[in-house]
Amino acid sequence: MQQFLTRLFTRLMKSWSWVLLIIATILIKWASWYPGWVEKNYSLGIYPVIARVQRILFGWIPISVGDLFYAFLVLIILFRTVKFFKLLFQRRLTRKYFGTGLQQAIFFVLFVYVFFNLLWGLNYNRVGIARQLQLEVKPYTVADLDTLTATLRDRLNFYATTVTEAQRDSFNQKRRLFKSGAEAYDYAHQQFGFLSYPHRSVKPSLFSYLGNYLGFQGYYNPFSGEGQVNTTVPRFLEPFVTTHEIAHQLGYGKENEANFVGFLACRAYPNNAFRYSVYFDMINYAIGELAVRDTGLTRSLINSLHPQYKKDRAELRQFYRQYRNPIEPVVSWGYGQFLRANNQPSGKQTYNEVVAWLIAYYKKYGLQAL
Predict the structure, then answer these.
(1) Does one domain contain both 83 and 154?
(2) By residue range, what is the domain housing residue 90?
(3) How far is residue 272's CA from residue 171's CA, in Å, rounded to a whole number?
(4) Is 0.85 topped by the overall pTM?
C-alpha cells in the first residue's frame, strides 16, 4: 500500500498538474460569481452530459461504486494516520516528511475541489428552478404560512386514509422503490419539461446503518453520479428521500431546491405512498417554521392531523432517539459548515427553506398546485 500511494502521488504531483489545478480553482471561483453563466453553460449545458455518462457507466452496477470509492479514501487516510503516529512514537519524523506530507495534502484538497465542482458542485451556484418556474421566493408572513400548513394538512390527512400497508411493504424491495422514484420523474417531466431523468442510478447506501448514527437519510456522490438512499430509515420516508436524491442528480445542488423538486416529482406521481411521504416531510418543515412564529397555531395544527401521521411521527422520533450519540452533533455541525461554504448560508436550515418555495409556488399557481 505504501509503495502504491508513493507512486501514485509521485506521478500526479508533476509541476504541470499543480499549474492546471491552480488555474482550474481560480476559474471555478470566478464562474461561481456569475449564476446566469453557470446556469446556461454548465447546469443546462455541460453537466447534463456528464451526469448521463456517469449514470450509463455506473447505473447498471448493483452496488454503489461511489461508496466503494469513499471506503478506499477512508482506508488511505487511516493508513497515513497510522504511519504518522508510528513515526512519531519512533521519533523518526523529519522536516522533509512534514514538507512532503503538506504538499500531498494541499494537492489532494485542490484535486478533490476541482473535480467535485467540475463533476457537479458548480450547480450550487446556478440560478436554478426559481427562474425555470418564474417564482418570486421572498420572506413570508404568518398568514402565508398558516395558509400553506392548512393546505398541506388537508393533503396529508387525505393520503393518510388511502395509503395501505401493502403499498408501504412493496418498497421493502428497493428495486421497486427506485424504479418508482424514476417513474415519478417521468410524470413530472410531462408537466415540467426540464425534469427529465434518463438512465436511473439510485442505490442503497453501503453505509446505511452508519448513516443512522451520523444523521443522514441519503446523499449524492458527484464522483460516480449515483444517488444513495439510507434504506434503514422508516419506510414512509424512503419515497421522498429517493426523489430528493434524484433532484441532486438532475443538477439541483441546494437542499431547498432539491426538496422542492422532490415535492414536484412526488406530487405529480399518482402513487399514494409517494404523495403521503412528501406531504409528511413538507408538513414537518412547515410545522418547524410555524412553531417559531406562533405556538398556538402549531398546537392547533398538530391536533388536527390524522392519527396515522401522529403514529409515524412518533416512530420517527423513536428512530432518531435510538441512534442518538455524541458524534452526530459534530457531524451535523460539519455538514452545516459544508453547506455554508457552498452558497447555502443558512447551513442545515436550508432544508427548511423549502417552505418559502412552496409559498411562492402556490401564490403563482394557486393552492390546487400543492
Answers:
(1) no
(2) 2-125
(3) 13
(4) yes
